[in-house]
Amino acid sequence: MSERAAPFYCPYCGDEDLRPSEAGHGAWECAACNRAFGLKFLGLLARGPRHDVGGDGI
Ligand SMILES: [Zn+2]
């Protein structure tokens, strides 16, 4: 699996015209609204993955 998280849509204007920024790892630029933003993986949630299994024991 890739270490990179690639956004599909700009979080500010919703456009898809995104390209990696040279500002650094996880930095992206939106050509539509001219914004630069960063994605950062913060870690896993303490509650763990969601289990969709019913109450059929552990
Ligand atoms: Zn945008």
TrEMBL record:
Superkingdom of origin organism: Bacteria
Name this polypeptide is given: Ferredoxin-like protein involved in electron transfer
